[in-house]
UniProtKB/TrEMBL annotation:
InterPro entries: Gfo/Idh/MocA-like_OxRdtase_C, Gfo/Idh/MocA-like_OxRdtase_N, Gfo/Idh/MocA_Oxidoreductases, NAD(P)-bd_dom_sf. It holds the Pfam family GFO_IDH_MocA. SUPFAM superfamilies: Glyceraldehyde-3-phosphate dehydrogenase-like, C-terminal domain, NAD(P)-binding Rossmann-fold domains. This is Oxidoreductase. Residues 15-135 form the Gfo/Idh/MocA-like oxidoreductase N-terminal domain. Residues 149-427 form the Gfo/Idh/MocA-like oxidoreductase C-terminal domain.
Amino acid sequence: MTSPASAESDGKPVTCMVIGGGNRGYGYSKYAKAFPAEFKIVGVAEPRDFYRQRLQDEHQIPQGSVFKDWRDAANKDKFADCVIIATPDREHKGPAIALAKKGYHILLEKPMAVTEEECREIVTACKENNTLLAVCHVLRYSPWAKKLKEIIDSGEIGDVVNIQHTEPVGYWHFAHSFVRGNWRNESESACSLLAKCCHDVDLLCHWMSPQKCIRVSSFGSVSHFKKSDKPKDAGDRCMDCKIERDCPYSAKKIYLDLVKQGHVGWPLKVIAEVPDIESVTDALKNGPYGRCVYECDNDVMSHQVTNFQFDNGATASLTMVAFTSRLCAREVKVYGTKGEITCDAGYLPKLKVFNFLTECTREVECRSESAGVLGGHGGADYHLMRSFVGALRSGNRELIQTGSDETLASHLLVFAAEKARKENRVVEF
């Protein structure tokens, strides 16, 4: 198989078209601003005027390479080396397959797709057209996750027999994204295990490799965010609710307080194009983010435990829970036959390695080198983009850690886990 086209030999930057100019597409595009000699945005397809115009203006994209619909871009001759696809989850398959056939290399926002069949179709299209596919499981590129794998592979803690991995979503973050927001309803997006935790299933597969998962079970429920838990005298919207001040999920508290503090980034930029007191207040009065959390159409799990058994007898568990003070700061414990690793992947990620023989603990700090504008996911967004651009510039596909085969394997485990939960049984591979 030949390597992807390299832009290094002629000294030109890798050129890219962004499909979907919202939070993630816009975020990844910032790599071009930080490293213009390596990466250049030359096209955009985005149906919303504000987000399309923002990318066009920031990157000085010519009008002939600006589209409202990705299909119009796909109908043109190939004019960039790669594409970033950051459309809504259920709209990944169409542009991924069409643009793979055009020969574009692809950086695809996670999840790859929302069904097993669509994931397989995307992988097949990329392989048949020899296009590089990198899926945005950004945590795999983070220094703490890579260091944890390095320690496991070194044999320092012996053979791994169990991993306990917790994803604390954060009480207000879950309310924002999975109760009021875009990922609240499975029929419109995906189950929360796929939308939020395909990152984490991917990490478990990576850390346990070369062992393969052979069976999976899963349990979860929709807790608290339902009409039966609505407090007496609560309104349907936070802006006119009598007891809003006593509710931890108050939209006024979550959003308006941030505006007053001068914050204009996520999550405010999700609910208002230009966040200020007036625009955010209007969004809370009239939009989905001002709804009472007990009056939404959410049906995705607010907490879920998934168990995995591997072919060597080792086990792993993933706990996803909404009701936490920590915001997506993963907690990991790895138990081996000669020691254990504890990881707090918070603001300053740190690993602690305990040796059974010496009964000593050593600490490993995992600070992330990051271009300031690419600090998302603790700097992992930067490491992902550096790997993707580096792979295209050098022709070295091994820089991509979350390619088609690895991503498909971990996605299949997510689909199996949901099957196990819904059918109340153990699913075997």
